[in-house]
Amino acid sequence: MKSIGKPFLTGLAATVPIMVTLYLIYWLAVTAETALGNLFRYLLPDGWYRPGMGVAAGLLLIYLIGLLMHAWLVQKLYSQAERLLYRIPLIRSVYGSIRDLFNLFSKAQEQALHQTVILTLGEMRVIGFVTRQNLSDLPPEIGAEVDVAIYLPMSYMIGGYLVLVPSTAIQPIDMSVEDALRFTLTAGITGARSGQHPPASPNTAKREI
């Protein structure tokens, strides 16, 4: 059974991530095609509808919403609607988690995380991100002049800790914010840098870890 089970688990580990990714893309495409495709069938004359028009309309709609989000009025309305969602107990938990997940990998968040660093705590080293390098505008009880603000994300969770430490306690590392976040959020399982290929197989990954 061991000789059969080990290759099966290896194949499972290799195929499940691909299958889940492809299924997610398929689900999004089918959802857009079903919702917007039915709308096209209703609005367009008979014979005008073509398969795929719902998906194309969904992509175009997302792009247009992205453009509108730069307008002040749209941002104001969006903020009002978001505040309303955060007042609803169950919805605010689901919406907040999804929103934080997408914001975590957004360009705006990457710009806010200035530098990827290693924080040494005794014999333990923790990957973190410098969020503020100047704490002079805060009460002196919060941080000294030499302190910096470090964000420490937690693995497999949307959250983390903010710690204030002396700048001498951290060491910058040559690792992008995206790569460091991926490495931390997956508890070190994913560690390939951008532009580098991941391990060829799960067995190779085990040897590297």
Describe the structure.
Strands 4-3-2-1-5 form a 5-stranded antiparallel β-sheet. It is built from 7 helices and 5 strands. The two termini are about 25 Å apart. The model is unreliable at about 195-209 (pLDDT under 50). A hairpin with a 6-residue loop joins strand 3 (about 145-155) and strand 4 (about 160-165). The longest helix has about 40 residues, at about 1-45. By secondary structure, it is α+β, with helices and mostly antiparallel strands.
Task: Write the SSE topology.
Blueprint: H1 2-43, H2 53-68, H3 72-85, H4 89-104, H5 107-112, E1 115-121, E2 124-132, E3 147-153, E4 160-166, E5 170-172, H6 177-185, H7 202-208
Antiparallel strand pairs: 1-2, 1-5, 2-3, 3-4
Helix pairs in contact: 1-2
Please give the domain count. Answer: 2
Mean pLDDT: 76
- H/E element sequence: HHHHHEEEEEHH
Major beta sheet summary: 5 strands, antiparallel
Nearest-angstrom radius of gyration? Answer: 23 Å
Portion in beta strands: 15-25%
- Measured between the Cα atoms of the first and last residue, the distance is 26 Å
SS-based structural class? alpha+beta
Unreliable spans are: 197-209
Compute the number of helices: 7
Q: Name the strands of the widest sheet in spatial order.
A: 4-3-2-1-5
Secondary structure tally: strands: 5
Q: How would you sum up the global shape?
A: flat
Task: Give the % helix.
Answer: 40-55%
